[in-house]
Amino acid sequence: MAGSQLLRRFRRGVALAGYNYKVWFRRHRRQLFLRWRDGDIADQMADYRRSVEARDWSAALPKALALGSIAKSRGEVRLLDELSKALMRMGAYGPAAELKIARRHIVEGRVNGEWLGQDISDQVLLVDLMETEKQGLATAIHHASSVGRALARAARLIVLVEHRLVPLFQRTFPAADVRAVGPGNKAAYGEAQAFAGVQHLTAVFETDETTIREHFVPLKPDPARVAELRARYRKDGRPLVGIAWGSSNPGKDLPPLTAWRGLISRPDLRFVSLQYGQVESDLKILTDGEFARILHDGSIDQLVDMDLFAAQVAAMDAVVTISNTGAHLAGALGIPSVFILGDGFKRSWPVEGDRTPYYPSAVLVSKRERPWAAVMEDAQNHMGSLISAG
Question: Taking the model in full, what pTM does it have?
Fold first, then answer.
């Protein structure tokens, strides 16, 4: 149907409803504009998502950046949330942080003393690593290196972390005032003149891969505990390889237990379980009934004592694990590691390459729609290279 015919039909319909079409259009032009605008965004989002599904990251990145600017200018909270996460995974760390901050401003309003890089050399800065992020421990560990950089910018630094991380952060950043998140948070906020969350640290310090990698600071475990555990585990002199295979998150794409058997079959290595929870039934499958192939130390519970768990991880010569808190901890400790990643754009790791600037000692082995047997063989080869290099 021609455009003129559509216009005549539109005018006739409005007239039959008892309106002058010009008056009707003036009254409803905002709704018409919003409908056109949302449709325009929907088309762009559909185009962007097609690039993601095709794993065409060179096409997806500029589309995500453009959509992020639109979402920011229009206050589209849902899109800001989706696109900030997408940009982070595609390596656009600075723009991703800016979208997260924009989302916060829309939802919660601006915070007095919000720190975005201005001079605070004469002020007390509060860094809350547990403020809004749902990932909890992993998020705090992931951005730990920026705490040291923030410390150099402020007259005094207060750091809020989950209580299990307090000893680890205190040991790593002795000049900082590290406190556990809890009811005392309000008092800490009252002591500070400037405030920063994870997204602020990212916007100020973590804008590109080179900067993140160059300023990596490994977390410091308890050296006495590390030495004691290493001596106890390595009595026969074989290199120690920590492994973790399971998750309580049902949405994760994980290799089956039997797929690990080839990796843990090397007799010249001593494998140590870094898996949380009840693992006895898993160990039976992993080892095909030969329990001696994996050492399980029941005296260590990472859900209770994270500092002792950090010492256990640090006692390893290498770590091979799925994506979990232990992976972040191994990477933050600077332990040579292999992270086994399933498919899906929702994961918290880069979509391209086999490295992450946050953990320079780690190698990423992604499934990329391959059979798990091929993925685990790849992980085994990387593990062997890490052991040889060590």
Answer: 0.86
